[in-house]
Write a structure and sequence with these properties.
Blueprint lengths: L1 H28 L3 H4 L3 E14 L7 E2 L5 E6 L8 E8 L9 E14 L4 E7 L17 E2 L9 E3 L3 E2 L13 E5 L3 E5 L3 H12 L7 E4 L9 E4 L9 E7 L16 H9 L18 H9 L2
Antiparallel strand pairs: 1-4, 1-14, 2-7, 3-4, 3-13, 4-12, 5-11, 5-13, 5-14, 6-10, 6-12, 8-9
Helix pairs in contact: 1-5, 4-5
């Protein structure tokens, strides 16, 4: 009886010691995604851009394939009409589950009628198109199929809910723009939230409106578009990749009995798949990692 009790206590003590050692080792190698994952920065170009052109006579002009987009109010020669830019980026190369930490939009302002004015990014709330219309100036050309115009988000038959486009009234970012130069709309809470939502598919990726000063005549600013031969729009995104759980030995998305069986089956060996902590031996640390992540 005494021998059996001693044997049981010894076995129990060994197991407790193994568990404590393994758990302590797991805690020692634990890594939280915010602090241990390597941040990744990517730069993506725009995949669509356009300019909405107001017209007092109701004609629908567009700049789908133009080399520039425009924002603000033109002068008397253009009847003081408005220009609103649109721009959209493809962020599908960033994996779902990534955490966006920084966003910067860079645009090259290539012509101005003078003055320094705020240019704001507003998240578009409806989808829109980019047709084949082209003109060298900001007056636009007759709208073509799928062009975004002041009236239609897809010309000729899909109108905006409100003429002039539908967008979040609160700016995601604002930049003071003066002379010809590159300008960067840098990280803000709303700018990050926009891109995070597009990546996570919690909000549609309809891009941003580029809204200028719509009160003062000759406040319009011209920015080079994706169709320009130089100085194309850039969206710079820094993100933390989604965590990859090393305890998911067979990489099927779950930590379960399959992973446990692989670790136990390779016990004491140098099996690279089952050696979760890469110490050269499949042992209690690897087992504890699987159990802790079950």
């Amino acid at each position: 009886m005494t021998s059996r009790m001693t044997s049981h206590m010894t076995t129990r003590g060994i197991m407790q010691s193994l568990q404590s050692t393994a758990f302590a080792s797991v805690l020692g190698m634990a890594c939280f995604s915010e602090t241990c994952a390597h941040a990744t920065t990517v730069t993506v170009g725009s995949v669509a851009d356009a300019t909405l052109i107001s017209d007092p006579d109701g004609f629908q002009y567009a700049l789908g394939m133009a080399y520039q987009i425009y924002s603000g109010r033109v002068g008397d020669q253009g009847l003081g009409t408005l220009r609103r830019g649109l721009i959209r980026f493809d962020v599908s190369t960033i994996p779902p589950g990534a955490v966006v930490t920084s966003v910067q939009l860079k645009l090259y302002m290539s012509a101005t009628q003078g003055g320094t004015h705020n240019i704001s990014l507003h998240r578009a709330l409806q989808s829109w198109g980019e047709g084949a219309s082209f003109a060298f100036g900001g007056g636009g050309a007759p709208a073509q199929t799928n062009d975004a115009t002041w009236v239609n988000r897809f010309f000729p038959g899909q109108p905006w809910t409100t003429p002039g486009g539908v967008y979040d009234p609160t700016a995601s970012a604002t930049k003071s723009v003066g002379g010809i130069a590159w300008y960067a709309w840098t990280t803000s809470t709303r700018l990050v939230a926009d891109v995070q939502g597009w990546i996570s598919h919690t909000i549609p990726n309809d891009g941003w409106f580029v809204i200028g000063n719509e009160t003062i005549l000759q406040s319009v600013k011209r920015f080079d578009s994706r169709n320009s031969t130089v100085n194309n729009p850039q969206l710079i995104i820094t993100y933390t990749p989604p965590p990859a759980n090393p305890a998911d030995v067979n990489n099927d998305g779950f930590v379960n009995g399959v992973d446990l069986a692989i670790v136990l089956g390779a016990w004491g060996s140098a099996n690279a798949q089952a050696d979760i902590d890469d110490n050269g031996t499949v042992d209690g640390v690897d087992l504890a990692s699987v159990l802790a992540s079950w």
